[in-house]
From TrEMBL:
<comment type="similarity">
    <text>Belongs to the PrpD family.</text>
</comment>
<feature type="domain" description="MmgE/PrpD N-terminal">
    <location>
        <begin position="10"/>
        <end position="245"/>
    </location>
</feature>
<dbReference type="InterPro" id="IPR045337">
    <property type="entry name" value="MmgE_PrpD_C"/>
</dbReference>
<dbReference type="InterPro" id="IPR045336">
    <property type="entry name" value="MmgE_PrpD_N"/>
</dbReference>
<protein>
    <submittedName>
        <fullName>2-methylcitrate dehydratase PrpD</fullName>
    </submittedName>
</protein>
<dbReference type="InterPro" id="IPR036148">
    <property type="entry name" value="MmgE/PrpD_sf"/>
</dbReference>
<dbReference type="GO" id="GO:0016829">
    <property type="term" value="F:lyase activity"/>
</dbReference>
<dbReference type="InterPro" id="IPR005656">
    <property type="entry name" value="MmgE_PrpD"/>
</dbReference>
<dbReference type="InterPro" id="IPR042183">
    <property type="entry name" value="MmgE/PrpD_sf_1"/>
</dbReference>
<feature type="domain" description="MmgE/PrpD C-terminal">
    <location>
        <begin position="272"/>
        <end position="438"/>
    </location>
</feature>
<dbReference type="Pfam" id="PF03972">
    <property type="entry name" value="MmgE_PrpD_N"/>
</dbReference>
<dbReference type="InterPro" id="IPR042188">
    <property type="entry name" value="MmgE/PrpD_sf_2"/>
</dbReference>
<dbReference type="Pfam" id="PF19305">
    <property type="entry name" value="MmgE_PrpD_C"/>
</dbReference>
Amino acid sequence: MNESMLTRELARLALSSHPEESAEAFAAARLGVIDFLASSFAARDEEAIAKLWRVVKAEGGHAQVPVIGQGEKVSFLQASLLNGLIGHALDYDDVHSDVRGHPSTVILPALISVAATEKPSGERFLAAYVIGVETMARLGQAIGPDHYVKGWHNTATLGGIAAAVAAAYLKRFSQAAMEKVIGFAATQASGLRIQFGSEMKPLHPGLAAHAALLSLKLAEEGFAGTRQALDGQLGFFGLYGDGDQDRAKRLLVEGWGEPWKIVTPGLWFKRYPFCSAAYHAADAAVRLREKNKLSPQDIEKVEIIFPPDGDAALVEREPQTGEEGRFSVEYVVALALNGYPLSLDNFTKAPLAEEIKRFLPRIHRSYDAKLSPVPHAVPKGRFTIVAVTTTDGTTYCERIDRPKGAPGQPLSSEELRQKLEHALAGEPDRAERIIGTVSALKGKEDLQQLLFLLSITSRL
């Protein structure tokens, strides 16, 4: 494959895919939809959403697409902004280790807008979702690790392209139109990790989904643009990646759907509303406290050990609020060792509890390049060790290579059900109907019923 064919090959593979032939892929997709809706409903009253609502309402527009949990509809493009923000507002939504980011909260908002305006079948919707995850995971592998470490937010930079591919598949675009859509989305790719810990970070998926749908609209109007945006040194991988074009080509297209990335390694569904990079430490700290009956008064110091760059996403070392604490391993470990639940209530805009603030200076990070990751680690090459030293000089250690919720140790269907029910507290009937509708999702009517269930605000 020469360098002018990469965009063409991605478009061809996406358009010729048949994920509906894989029962495993569709089962995983159904779980992904349920988890995304649980994460979204849990966030529906967040202040950032109200702020974006005011911007959208001031602009006006056609009421076409439902906004999750808000009881209102907005325009095709506006809905992607809002639903993307809502899905990621609590950092409670799924991640994928190949992406090093969050696929569903970009892909599904784009597909919801298309579903509401085009009325495709539920089966086609799920197939598009599988293709979107496949695209985003392969982009994540092909772009290389330096992209994230350098400061880009993969959810935003890769998500727009993946969502555009998924939405163009759902709308049955031609090969030529798909190639242009990829280019339109690629040229809008942006998102900085320096925004982590702020309201702008969860808006990144909304901006990426908006870019994806704008790309579709431009293509439908015959807007001119390159059909080789991923290719060569001036293309997406040449600019955003590590410069290894051969590696990018191989990882992006070879073995497409064999197996589907939504199945292997699969999506990582979250138990806690904070960055997944802190999950290893969270599990270790909870285990240390429970197993050793540790009292915070007896803890003299805590060391959190990562492989090099294993904490790149955890940008907050001295958080002042629970919202900033979503990206602070120190805060997460302090909560766990002090017996606080790792629940939504402790990751809000409220200032930290005084005893947690006093505990934070005892916690320090370090890095060990000599320790070998285990083969089953998730993400690959990662681990976290938490070492607690007590006032009598005793040290207790726990190492976690694959936290609960990650592929290989997933949340059960029942745990996902409970996550949705908790997000819809007081509305058990709606939770049950959403799960039943997603589980049976196939025809056009099924998909429209799902859109109705996610948009209403009153109890059923």
